[in-house]
Amino acid sequence: MEAAALGTFTMSACGFGVLLPLLFKGDFARRLAGGIAMGLTAVAIIYSPWGKRSGAQMNPALTFAYFTLGRIAAWDAVFYIAAQIAGGTAGAVLAGRVFGPAVAEVHYVATTPGPEGPWIALAAEFAIAFLLVSVVLRVANSRRWSKFTPWVAGCLIATFITFESPLSGMSMNPARSFASALPSGIWTAFWLYVAAPTFAMLAAARLYRSGPVFCIKYHHHNNQRCIFRCNYGALQNER
Q1: What is the 3-state secondary structure (H, E, C) of the chain?
Q2: Over the stretch 5-24, which tens digit does the pLDDT of each residue have?
Q3: Helices 2-23 & 74-99, crossing angle to 10 degrees?
Q4: Is the entire prediction scored with pTM above 0.85?
Q5: pLDDT, tens only, 98-115
């Protein structure tokens, strides 16, 4: 399910990467449309039956950060990360078959640093990854706001693509960057797309350790069995 989730997200990114330049001429208009499209894609995956079951983490850096919070078992984390990498890569390869040479022309939407260079891209990737986890942990573990977590995550993704992508390409996800780099052959500053999200999400999780972490699903308002070290029922007693 995790593999299918990130595979779907990667295919969607490739598809919109091909389509949007045909529909929008301005850079900002394309980024805004792409942000909305990918934000809604993430929300749809989170609300899907499989997303409800797996938690739709779709990101090795996020899974590792959640592991440090003690809410996912070690072997589950290992297999989640393996599935995310395999699924994202399969999604990119399948996108090449579906969209043909057009997806190669947009380099499988590979993430590369903007004109300001890799260090600015590193800082930007760190900032958005840190912000995502900081916000999601607070929203997901609030009795009042937890049901809105998928939409908060989707809005953050849309905002980052619209405004931050000129700096780094907006990845936040080592598996997503790997999936595009492999078929495109573009490995420019790939290290930063592994390092920045991983350290940023780990830092955000560690800073949040003083707060309650009831579970690590984006969407827990459903009747799907939870495979994590879940204490979601206790959230109902929180204010």
Answers
A1: CHHHHHHHHHHHHHHHHHHHHHHCCCHHHHHHHHHHHHHHHHHHHHHCHHHHHHCCCCCHHHHHHHHHCCCCCHHHHHHHHHHHHHHHHHHHHHHHHHHCHHHHHCHHHCCCCCCCCHHHHHHHHHHHHHHHHHHHHHHHCCCCCHHHHHHHHHHHHHHHHHHCHHHHCCCCCHHHHHHHHHHHCCCCCHHHHHHHHHHHHHHHHHHCCCCCCCCCCCCCCCCCCCCCCCCHHHHHHCC
A2: 999 999 999 999 999 999 99
A3: 40
A4: yes
A5: 999 999 999 999 999 999
- Residue at token pair 């699924």: 87
Are 179 and 57 in contact, with CB atoms under 8 Å apart?
A: no
